[in-house]
Amino acid sequence: MATSSRTIRSNAAPAGRTHEAGAPPARPDLHVVTGNRNHSSPVTRGVERLFTWTRTRKAPMLNVVIAMVFLAVCLVGSLTLRTQMVQQAFEQTQVQGHIATLTQDVEDDQAKLDELQASLPRKAQDMGMVPQQGSIAIDLNGYVAANQKERR
């Protein structure tokens, strides 16, 4: 008597796993684990982990590179603007110093001029000059030259 072997198939799944009938269960993604490299720097390991991460994700590497380039450009632009602002502030301070110096020079010259004008009558008297007693004013508003009268 020959006995046939029986197989029993069930749709039951282990605890925590459910899948639809007829659909194969989802498998985890597999990746190669390389040996421990003690000689590489943390930056190199970080870059390698970034490349691995971008390969396993749907975001292409181009998006990550564009983001890094954008951040680098922003950093360089920010540093350039800050340097320019500091340079302009320094130049402004120098110009304000020059303005203050020139203002002081003008005030000193004006004080000397006022002093000389005040001492002018005394110096004139010391030289023997006599101050003018009366003043004469001539009004030339209606004056027309003789040669212009003939032309009319």
Keywords:
152 residues, 3 helices, 57% helix, transmembrane helix, membrane, transmembrane
Terminal Cα separation, in Å?
158 Å
Number of strands: 0
Large-scale geometry: rod-shaped
**Count of DSSP-assigned helices:** 3
Order of helices and strands: HHH
The proportion of residues in beta strands is: under 5%
Rounded to the nearest angstrom, the radius of gyration is 50 Å
Q: What oligomeric state best describes the polypeptide chains here?
A: single chain
Stretches where pLDDT falls below 50 for ≥5 residues? none
Helix content: 55-70%
Structural class: mainly alpha
Question: How confident is the prediction overall: mean pLDDT?
Answer: 82
Largest sheet: none
Written account of the structure:
By secondary structure, the protein is mostly helical. The chain has a domain at 45-122. Helices cover 57% and strands 0% of the residues. It contains 3 helices and no strands. It has helices at 42-56, 61-126, 146-151. The longest helix is centred in the middle third of the chain and has 66 residues, at 61-126. The chain crosses the membrane at residues 61-81. Residues 1-41 are annotated as: Disordered.
